[in-house]
Amino acid sequence: MEVAQDISALTEHAYQAMEHAAMSQGARMPIAPPAIPTPYARWLEHLARVNEALDRTPELGVRMPADTARGLAALEAARERFRRNYKQCPGCARFIFRAARRCPCGEKF
User: Fold this and answer.
1) DSSP class of 102
2) What is the pLDDT of residue 33?
3) What is the rounded distance in angstroms from the CA atom of residue 70 to the CA atom of residue 67?
4) Residue 31: beta bridge partners?
5) Buried residues in 16-34 as b, exposed as e (16+ CB within 10 A)
6) How high is the pLDDT of residue 12?
7) Whole-angstrom Cα distance, residue 68 to residue 73?
8) Averaging pLDDT over each range in 15-24, 70-79, 95-104, which range is the top one?
């Protein structure tokens, strides 16, 4: 299956990348990145660049290939899942698991 059409795997890999970034914030030791296959990693990088460009420019009249639109939707689904599972500490802005009662910085919830 072509990477751009494998929406469930793309969403999962995007979520894993977000989770890795959150866990790496302030870590004392390096955390190994998730094993995202190269084609998925490249497509996610492309989607991140497209998403960034869309954020900087007005959306009126923007046309894009269907694969890109589906990919951006997968990226947003991964973000929503991340937001459901993690919260940002008001003390240090680190993302921590939503069920945590205390941040490593000492902030209590």
Assistant:
1) B
2) 82
3) 5
4) none
5) bbbbeebeeeeeeeeeeee
6) 95
7) 9
8) 70-79
